[in-house]
Fold:
Amino acid sequence: MGKGNRNAMPDDYTDSPIRKIGILTSGGDAPGMNAAIRAVTRTAIFYGREVVGILHGYKGLIENNFKPLNSGDVSNIIQLGGTILKTARSMEFRNVEGRQMAFQNIKNAGIDALIVIGGDGTFTGARIFAQEYGVPIVGIPGTIDNDLFGTDFTVGYDTALNTIIEAVDKIRDTATAHERLFFIEVMGRDAGFLALNGGIASGAEAVLIPETDTDLTTLEKLIKSGYRQNKNSSIVLVAEGEKAGGAFNIARQVEKDYPQYDVRVTILGHIQRGGSPTASDRILASRLGVAAVETLLEDQQSVMVGIENDQISLVPFNKAIKYDKEVNHKLFDSIRVLSS
Structure:
């Protein structure tokens, strides 16, 4: 990563023309976004730069909704979920006219570069904006889905995973008490990382994700196998983007085909986005926030800062957006063995 000196002093970047950095959060919120905002703000100040918070994501760029940030503004936020800068989806930013207005606003505010925190939609907007107006932009992966190519983990994923595990543990208590089959739907419209790893961590009997076809016959065999071995409950985790249409559709089909099961459905929904970030997410967000500022000051742009093998990596926006991050299909073997 450029100079690669993580013990650099402020005067190391005096040659960089970037003096004022804007920061925004966009798309779905993720626990740890505040930790990243804190890290970006304090790192920029450490290197003698000004920081401007942009409220409500790209919508704030268009509406000129800017707020200067100092070190005190980001005190006591590392433990908070959500985002102090708020987030929103902006249809206007998808239009040429909207992006032109956004550029004029940051130019008028003297903002030289942007750091954006979000997922693939956020980075798609950043890539187009950078191409059209030459604005230096660096992205921090903030999404609970963990679905961005080029980073082992995204900010918010670990917290969401732990939230799922806590919820499933509670549901298993009541499932066992009533000898029920629970289908639990978790987030993951296009990716099954939460469901797959949540299934292993919570001892689920089966997992259904978008990356694989749902085979109800195989699912029924797994459930039957569990009951034959005197299991008095079963848990199946379903990613919301699963191809058969989600937990309710699958549950209805199972009830129809196998009326002997007492079937229930729980949709975990937005509780997965909330809560205080775990230590892992706070550390990841902090490391990526520092790296994002240093990346800008090293004249790198249109890249996402990620983490691979515990090392900071730089991934061009087009790769982070274009390539799919693959789940480890061997984990299904682990689930099958452990649920036997």
Notes: The first helix runs from residue 33 to 46. Confidence is low (pLDDT under 50) at residues 1-10.
